[in-house]
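## retry 2 of 3
previous attempt timed out at serialization; input unchanged, resubmitting
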Amino acid sequence: MPKHNFRKLHDSRQQFVTKSPQIPMQYFQFYGLIALVAMIIVGAFGVGTLVAENTNNQNSPTQTNTNSQTSAVASRKPNTISTPITNSQPILQAEISENTGEFIYNVSTVPNLKESEKLGKIVADLVKYAKKNNLPTKKLSITLIDLNQNTIANYQQDTARYPASVVKLFWMIALNAQIQRGLIPFDSSINKDLNDMIIKSDNDAASRIVDRITGTQSYAKNLDNEQLKTWKNNREKLNNFFQKAGYKNINISQKTFPIEYLNIQEPQGADLQIRGNSNNPQRNRITTYQAARLMYEIVSAQAVAPGYLEQNLGLLKRDINPAVWRKQPPNPIDFNPVESFLGESLPANKITFFASKAGWTSFSRQEVAFVNVNSAKNRYILAIFGDDAAYARSKKVFPQMSRIVFDRITNSKL
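## retry succeeded, writing output
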């Protein structure tokens, strides 16, 4: 994470005292005039140099110390991975639009992916599995990307669905961007909240991060119309950040609940007001394509800046060794990010690296994962959203779907 250095200019002065009573006063006046002229010349040169330096710094945003961005992250470091080759050429900086002043995600060029017949058959197999197990396919969305071939296949990937804690993946990138641009100072509390939000999927940490990004707070009481308008506009900066970069109609402006440190079990006050009609409330909405696209941009070092790759993958890494994940979670209130999810059924001895962000509620189950098989022999991204209680109840559906994909892509036998 970047440490923000502020230039300190020190004005050091030396005073010389000369006692020469025998020298006439006019000599002092003459030499004093020369010294004054010299000081003016030197001062003008120094100011000109400083202005030039500042101009160069302002015109070179890539001079940010990205090496320090990975120093204060999760203790686990990811294995080295190969990143996909893309035709997109993103600006590797989070940008502030000169025209509107809006804060915008830096990657506006969508991945150049081709439809794949092979992947299409794999996705069709996943849909068949859902039908066979009496899971509602109308509530199912799937996106599958082969990073080695730069190909894609999907099932209802453009249908926006409730993402649960998958939304925290997006908040992580928005936070990175604000830190990288110097809009939020990086400190130990931010680092802890970032770790807790992604590794533990902690709602308290996520709440504080959303507040820092948007400059809002959760209130118990309702806001009046004018206050709510301002509050809502600030919260929707999260949506605008991605929408302006091509993430159409995404909604990530609402917190995840419960939030224990605020003693809030469900939305209230302004958090409830922005949901609108209680009979048809507006909630967070993300497509599997958007989740897969963001994971693609993370693993290809496009998200925010290349220096954030190691940090983000370190936070998203999941140990799928059964001897490890069966001992999780570290405390009872955290759900296990491997058990009953995409990583559970994968053979740990064949997986070089596994990174994911999962979500789960009583009425939904969702996850986006990056899988690196045998040192990049096969690399793929899989996003599955099951927006129905049947998916929430099933502990086998995600592991089984994940294993189907693994076996088909690697040509393994079931």
